[in-house]
Amino acid sequence: MNDERSPTHSPLSRAVSRRQVLLGLSAVGGIGAVTVGGYGYARGVLTPQQLTSSRFADRFETVFGQHDGFRRNHAKGLSASGYFTSNGAGAAVSTAAVFSPGRIPVTGRFSLSGGLPCAPDGDAVVRGMALLFSLPNGEQWRTAMVNIPVFLDSTPQNFVDRLLVSKPDPETGKPDPRKLKEYLSDHPETVAAMKIVHQQPPTSGFENSTFHGLNAFGFTNEAGKTVPVRWKMLPEQPVKPATPPQPSGQDYLFESLIRATADTPLQWRLILTIGEPEDQTNDATKPWPDDRKTKDVGTLTLDSVQTEDRGNARDINFDPLILPEGITALDDPLLNARSSVYARSFARRTSESKQPSKIKVEEVLDEH
């Protein structure tokens, strides 16, 4: 079994040897690296000019400041718990135990992107859903998803560059428009991805958001056939658009989630999209064609959310390379960096004094 509380035992080294994936950066957790050997990146032994996991975490602290005990990105969040009910259909594409018919426990986390644990909620801020599936054979599947259909950067260096040019100016409170314009003019793939994101505006809350895995993975079935797959969580709750004016209150998205979960369990359907040989698996800024086959493989039910504290999702590193047999990383240049930088962030925050979560579930429920 993978040790969820030990970043040094993440499957990064196993992933490098078994899957030969390249280094890269995360869509959800927002991480980066350089396209050289994964071991060197994870151990932070690259040359001073190269971007190690430690230096990447430093960049987040440069932009957002250091907040002891919190994640360097997606710092603001709530824990969740529930279960996944597989309908058995996923077994056609993967031998992973998660797709065997039946129910397995799930630990989850809802979050907002950025490194500020007390930042005000906003409709346009990227929302996250992270999940840990506890499989009956002792394996785990961990995945971190976001509510946008594509990532905005094609390389780790591009991500960290965009992160830095987006840092607000202390005098204006906003990024330097000249620097942003220059960056976008040099990165047409980011502009194209932004257009795709803008075509799918945010919904009114976490509870009716679709969450996308973004990265492509290899799914292998009993016959030994491997196909590229991306996945998403499609809400069963009625979808309502986010309409101006934005609700008042700094935590309105999380408060809405707490109230919704108290009223009834929330559900999402896990939808696999099966890629074709010509589909790109190494660029999360590029969507696959709309006519690709999809498969509904089961239902996620989250029936409780909790203030982050000892023993729940606060203490989990949602490393995307912790995968069950039957699912493997392909050549997506984001995954090893996500794994190694998540581990770096995990190591830092677990060595720091813990600060209380700003979002108090009990207080919201008392008023509900």
TrEMBL record:
SUPFAM superfamilies noted in UniProt: Heme-dependent catalase-like (SSF56634)
Cellular component, GO annotation: cytoplasm
Region (Disordered): 346-368
Record domain Catalase core: where: 40-363
Cofactor: heme
Residues binding heme, per UniProt: Y342
First-level EC class: oxidoreductase
Record-level GO BP terms: hydrogen peroxide catabolic process; response to hydrogen peroxide
Keywords carried by this UniProt record: Heme, Iron, Membrane, Metal-binding, Oxidoreductase, Peroxidase, Transmembrane, Transmembrane helix
Enzyme Commission number(s) from the entry: 1.11.1.-
InterPro entries for this protein: Catalase, Catalase_core, Catalase_sf, Catalase_SrpA-type_pred, TAT_signal
Pfam families noted in UniProt: Catalase (PF00199)
Keyword Phosphoprotein belongs to the record: no
GO molecular function: catalase activity; heme binding; metal ion binding
Active-site residue numbers: H74
Record CDD domains: srpA_like
Family of the protein in this entry: Belongs to the catalase family.
PANTHER family: CATALASE
Protein name listed in UniProt: Catalase-related peroxidase
